[in-house]
Amino acid sequence: MAPTDSYLTATRLLDFDSPSISNLVRDRGWHDLARVDRIGAVYDFVRNVIAFGYNRVDDIPASAVLTDGYGQCNTKGTLLMALLRSVGIRCRLHGFTIHKALQRGVVPELVYPLAPSEILHSWVEVETEEGWINLEGFILDAPFLQSLQKEFSETESLCGYGAGTDCLSAPPVSWNGGSTYIQKTGIVRDFGTFDAPDDFYLKYSQNFGFARDFLYRHVIRHWMNARVRRIRRGMLPKVPGLSRPNHSHEENNRAA
């Protein structure tokens, strides 16, 4: 009996044998594509069809992320891994924390002080013919990212509103066969690689405490998702201390 490849197996979270994921893969015809195109098609689906947003917890199955239709770094990563494995692409998870400042602007100022200083983060590592690459650029959907680029068109560095990059005007987020990033500059701690997200969450979890966890699941994340939708429409909430050069120019023009 051949040994099981831990980078291709289904798990509780990577439930690519679920009907919703199996049907999606079949209907999209991803199995018929060349290897590099399979990766790209799955990546683009998770990046843009699955919108940026906040699910109830990190450790939900890929099928639940697909049903929600939105996700953040960890949950979209789970779906990405499940879809990649379903089409025979070996992948693993790399775990980190990011500084909470990266989420400022999405997290309402009223509750921002309640957020832990470091937030659990991950990206997906994929085996290609050239070796392993890092995929992180799938987190923010294109309309959301474009709103940030328009608002901060006069700066390249941004740590806030869900982005952490030093090349905002042209961040490496599109699939071209190499690594992609959009929150990399916010990384604080590196936890290394894991065969599956299940293994990562067994060892690490976002410890809010009971009260904050209840508030996050039932109130705060819905508030955050409403702000995400507003940002996507070009209405960015103000963040104290975060420069918005385009706005200062508009205010100067109005004053003149």
- CA(first)-CA(last) distance: 78 Å
* Total discrete domains: 1
Largest sheet: 4 strands, antiparallel
Radius of gyration from the alpha-carbon trace, in angstroms: 18 Å
Mean pLDDT: 93
- Beta strands, count: 8
Domain Transglutaminase-like: 36-136
Pfam families: Transglut_core
GO molecular function, one term: peptidase activity
InterPro entries: Papain-like_cys_pep_sf, Transglutaminase-like
Summarize the structure.
This protein is α+β, with helices and mostly antiparallel strands and 256 residues long.
What does this structure look like?
By secondary structure, the chain is of the alpha+beta class. The protein has one domain (19-243): C8orf32 fold (Roll). 38% of the residues lie in helices and 17% in strands. It contains 8 helices and 8 strands, in the order H-H-E-H-E-H-E-E-E-H-E-E-E-H-H-H. The chain has helices spanning 19-28, 35-49, 62-68, 73-86, 142-151, 197-203, 210-232, 245-255; strands at 51-52, 70-71, 91-99, 118-128, 131-135, 158-160, 163-165, 187-194. The strands form 3 sheets. It has a 4-stranded antiparallel beta sheet with strand order 5-4-3-8. Strand 6 and strand 7 form a beta hairpin. It is globular. The N and C termini lie far apart (78 Å). Residues 247-256 have low confidence and may be disordered.
